[in-house]
Leucine-rich repeat-containing N-terminal plant-type domain-containing protein
Amino acid sequence: MGRLALFSTMIMLLLRCLSGVMIQASDVSALMAFKRGISRDIHNILGSWDPSLATPLGWFHVTCDAAGRVIRLFVFQTR
């Protein structure tokens, strides 16, 4: 498993373990921290991730539930 895939898995496990009362802004903060940790995004895969939005609903490669909470990241490593 590549470093990016491993890191995205760890982020998702962290998000799932956090309290259900965590507000959506915390999901955005966690995803933005993840994005800052990416050293290269040569295909601008994370370009739609806009921290000014209240929820990551509609961000590419992010799946949210009906309440707008992050339930899955689809991040893969290309060579």
